[in-house]
Amino acid sequence: MHRPTDPQRRSRPVRVMVVDDHPMWRDAVARDLAEAGYEVVATAAGGAQALRVAGAARPDVAVLDLQLPDMSGVEVTMGLLAADPGIRVLVLSASGERQDVLDAVKAGAAGYLVKSAGRAEFLDAVRRTAAGDAVFTPGLAGLVLGEFRRLATAQRPDGRDVPTLTERETEILRMVATGLSYKQIAGRLVLSHRTVQNHVQNTLGKLHLHNRVELVRYAIEHGLDGGQDA
To answer: Which residues contact 82 (CB under 8 A, 6 or more apart)?
Structure first.
C-alpha cells in the first residue's frame, strides 16, 4: 500500500480511525479529533470491521480499544500492522493492567493511553503517535521504560553490549520505571521538569529508540521484562 512521504504527511491533516464498541464513546472521541483538526477517516465498532475498512481509509493513526466484541485489541493491532506496517496504533483502554500494556506493545502498538486521560492529553498523544513517538500514560511509561532499563543493563544474546547509561540517566530511568511522573522526579531530584525530560530523551536516543517499539518487543520476547521489579 502506498503511503504519503513525510513532507506529504506534514502538508495534510493526520488521518485517524477510531475503533471502539461503545457508540457514545466512539462518537465523542471522533468529535474531539475533528474539532482539533484531525481527519477522522473511519470509525469501527469491532475488530473485523476495523480490519475491513482500514485498507480503503488508510489512516495514519488507529485509536483502538482493547476490549472489542469480536476480536481482542491485540489481534486487531497485529492485523492492522500486517496489512500496513505504516499505521501507528494508539491503544485507548479502560485497563491499565501490566499484562495488557505489554501484550499491546508486543503486538506492535506505538502507545497506550488509559481512558481516564483528559482531552488535551489524548489529543497530544494522537499528535505524538502520528509523529512517531512512543506515547504512554505516565505510570505506564514507567512500566515500558523499565523494559528499556533492563535492556540497558543486560548484554544482548549476540554478545554485543548495549550503550551504557550515566548514573543520572539510570537514576531517572529507575524512578520513571516505578511510575513517578516527570514532575515528581523533578521535585525529588531538585531539577527542572525540562531537565528530567531531556535526560529521558537522551536515554531513549542512546538506546536507538527511533525504533523504540521494536526494542520493547525485543525486550519482552527475550524475557527481559523481568516481572514487576523496578
So the answer is: none
Q: What is the pLDDT of residue 207?
A: 56
Say whether pLDDT at 161 is over 50.
Answer: yes
Q: Is 154 in the same domain as 116?
A: no
Question: What is the domain extent for residue 203?
Answer: 140-221
Same domain? 129 vs 168: no
| Reported pTM | 0.66
Q: How far apart are CA 109 and CA 64, in angstroms?
A: 9
pLDDT tens-digit readout, 121-151: 899 889 988 887 777 776 666 666 665 555 5
pLDDT digit string (tens) for 37-53? 999 999 999 999 999 99
Secondary structure (DSSP) of the chain? -----HHHHHTSPPEEEEE-S-HHHHHHHHHHHHHTT-EEEEEESSHHHHHHHHHHH--SEEEE-SB-SSSBHHHHHHHHHHH-TT-EEEEEES---HHHHHHHHHHT-SEEEETTS-HHHHHHHHHHHHTT--EE-HHHHHHHHHHHHHHHHS--TTSPPPPPPPHHHHHHHHHHHTT--HHHHHHHHT--HHHHHHHHHHHHHHTTGGGHHHHHHHHHHTTTT-TT--
**End position of a domain, from candidates 136, 159, 182:** 136
